[in-house]
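Final paragraph of the annual report: two paired records, presented back to back.
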Amino acid sequence: MKFSTRIVTFLFVLAVATSFAQLPVVPSPASPDPKLPSASAQEDFSTISLDKSDLRADPPELVERDEEADFIREFFRVEWRPGDHIYLYVVRPRNVPKPPVVIYLYGHPSETDRYLDDGWCKRTTAGGYAAVGFVPALTGQRYHDRPMKEWFVSELQESLGKSAHDVQMVLNYLAQRGDVDMGNVGMFGAGAGGTIAAMAASVDSRIKAVYLLDPWGDWSTWTAKSEVIPEEERPRYITAEFLKKVADFDPVVLLPKLKTPHVRLDLLSDDGPDTPEEAQKHIEAALPPRAEHHRFENGAEFYSETSGGRVFDWVKLQIKTPDSKEHQSASARAPLPDTHGQPGRPEK
């Protein structure tokens, strides 16, 4: 029995060691270097635009590069504010010069693991698109050196403000690279990432299409009812002072004024624990007239319509040139159901 136990223990340790060995080795963050551009950063979290901030990017550090049959994935560590290094993934399709590009931002909590998944990379680059991903502020590897009581929601103005600034800084970086088509940029945002996508699109005209999946918003309702917030903390987040700080970041405020050419909102009716039904309805009502929106009764219905990478098709279609084969094939696909469960109109 003792021998068997030792064998099992050895195999477990070996398996854990092997799995860690397969992960990219990321240099440990050092103390901020006062000589680097990011050391002099000044930032105003209260505004979405970078106009009142002065963020200066350090030279990007390439951590790992993977060349696969269908795509090339690059993992960078970038930084434009002291102590907040961002793991940025740039995935490009092979043999496509200057492809259209989509920024993918998932919500809180989330990690960068999906950007290392070959299946995700294949699906997002299929058809000749570049995919760029990172995680929001105070999320994943970006949550450190804070007391546990300070987290994404308790510091909501900072979390959202920083992340919207990050999107604009990532766009600046992509423009400097010169290997993606900055005239055809889309953004895919889920949960809090959807809120951030709406924020970034409201101030950055480089974003030509934005897809919002169950964004957080309608703050007075959301803070009062969302199950993301622990009950013992809720009283702190329903005060006028807290709500005032994030009022300008509310999709209910931003969406009616959004000038982005292509906008789509998808909601899951059973996502009530994260975004209450009442808040979902207020976000729907705020959409500009030209926007598409679709509601799914539950996750099963959503995945049956969007699995296999189809969830990425809409944003890709909007940023592809009309005469391309990808545009023609995507237009020919059966449209997703609209809010009443009937076939919707193909996006024009």
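The closing record of the year follows.
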Amino acid sequence: MNKETIAVAAARTRGAQYDASVKTLLRYPKLVAPILQALIPEYRNYTTDQVAELLVPSGSPPVDDTSVMVNSNDTEVSSISEKLIRYDARFKLLNPVMSDKEHEVYLHVDLEVQNNYRPTNPKYPMITRGIYYAARLLGSELGILTEKTDYANLEKVYRIWICNENIPVHLRNTVVSVQLEKKDLIGFADIPEKDYDLMTVILVHRGSPANDEKIFRYLEALFKGNVDGICEHIDIHDDQDIMEEVEAMDKLWKGVAHEHYHKGADEQRKKDEAKLAEKDAVIAEKAATIAEQAATIAEQAATLEEMEREIERLKNR
């Protein structure tokens, strides 16, 4: 195995480790809370600490000071007649707007990080895939597994997609939300919003550099394992597990960034070499043209000189 092959394999391993670390971080309530607080309207009036408390913890009680992780529900949804889909982080949390002392209502959230915004095989709009995932997430609330069959029991779902790379320039540093809305075509139908506002898809398009909106600043810090940057949004110093995971992310990010830097430098070097080669080819072509023109001029000069000698010869007769 040559050095280049080994380097590629190592880069893929580090990339996979980095992706796995991202998914791990997104299972901690404290780290998910700033994202939900910034993107989901139901939590706009809550602090990130309050949002973290609304996330449903796992069934296993924490041991000693071990961090409670988000109850990540089944990450695969399938049926005989429908396509198997996988969720990165699928969980639920209390809906503070719809809940009261007698009834608890939940929001179901699927949070995923998408590195490549422009899939190539097959090609499809990201928002279309997001709508499909959200619809399947909503549909999974009813059926044999949940033992729920009453449509009145459906609870709102959010599909949040954080897009990192290959984002069109005009979409970078933007957030878009697509949801169900009522439109009166004839007259006015007084239908409660809670009966149809059951599905929202949110696409977060990151950019580099990130703008000053807090969601982009937080994601920048989170995905780089920047403790100080994260703590601008929520304090994690008192949680040893989270601190260790974030520090691991910091190391992975630096490794990935180092590879990207050198990859970018190599690509730039190849581009520069290609440009120089192109310029050399142009110069060589121009030189050949000049040489050809010089040869033509020399030939014409020789012909002219021969004509002048012929004229002189005729004059001397």
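Residues 26 and 76 are 17 Å apart (CA to CA). This concludes the annual technical report; the extension proposal builds directly on these records.
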